[in-house]
Amino acid sequence: MHCPYCRYTDSRVLDSRVAEDGSSIRRRRECRSCNRRFTTLEQMQLVVVKRSGVVEPFSREKVVSGVRKACKGRPVTEAQLAKLGQRVEESLRAGGQAEIPADEVGVAILGPLRELDAVAYLRFASVYQHYQSVDDFEAEITRLRETVGEPVRRGASVPEPTPEQLF
Fold first, then answer.
1. How many angstroms separate the CA atoms of 61 and 6, rounded?
2. In the prediction, which pLDDT does 21 show?
3. What is the 3-state secondary structure (H, E, C) of the chain?
4. What is the rounded distance in angstroms from the CA atom of residue 137 to the CA atom of residue 148?
5. Cα 71–chain centre separation
6. What is the C-alpha to C-alpha distance for residues 159 and 14, in angstroms, rounded to an integer?
7. pTM of the entire structure?
8. How many Å apart are CA 166 and CA 126, to the nearest integer?
9. Which residues contact 23 (CB under 8 A, 6 or more apart)?
């Protein structure tokens, strides 16, 4: 740890406390050279292991960017996207693993996205879960309707007009 004032490489820890719901440690330090005090915040670094074996640091912005594409044209705000990114990161950190397979990141995104917007969820899930046919979409839509309590409709997707609507 370098002193932010004199860049000396040795400091002593005066106090350590758990911060941010246990996901980081706050340390109060004193430089052994200039005797000035400073605070550090140490956080576990999450890394994502891709299918190819490449390891890269977890990026909340990358999660938000991917979800933003699925939400294109939907009534979803940037604040909602930021909150979703935060929820995904918190759920991954709560797992206690430093290395996370890329598909687990996708699974962590699906739950909050499903709550945020069903259409964006279907878009994201269709790519992530590799839907192969219309039947895959229909099965997922049926599951969505069952969790929302909406009746499952078969056949025509447009309801029959009432006599008042005809005239």
1. 33
2. 65
3. CCCCCCCCCCEEEEEEEEEHHHCEEEEEEEECCCCCEEEEEEECCCEEECCCCCEEECCHHHHHHHHHHHCCCCCCCHHHHHHHHHHHHHHHHHCCCCEEEHHHHHHHHHHHHHHHCHHHHHHHHHHHCCCCCHHHHHHHHHHHHHHHCCCCCCCCCCCCCCHHHHC
4. 16
5. 14
6. 70
7. 0.65
8. 38
9. 43, 44, 90, 93
- In angstroms, the CA 94 to CA 23 distance is 8
Per-residue pLDDT 10s for the chain (167 aa) are: 899 999 999 999 999 998 866 668 999 999 999 999 999 998 878 999 999 999 999 999 999 999 999 999 999 999 999 999 999 998 998 888 889 999 899 989 999 999 999 999 998 988 877 788 888 888 888 888 887 665 544 443 444 445 454 44
Alpha-carbon distance 137 to 32, whole Å? 63
Whole-number Cα distances in Å, 109 to 72, 97, 150: 16, 17, 23
Distance CA 1, CA 100 (A): 27
Residue 126 tokens, joined: 């269709």
Residues 107, 111, 114, CA angle at the centre, nearest 5°?
125
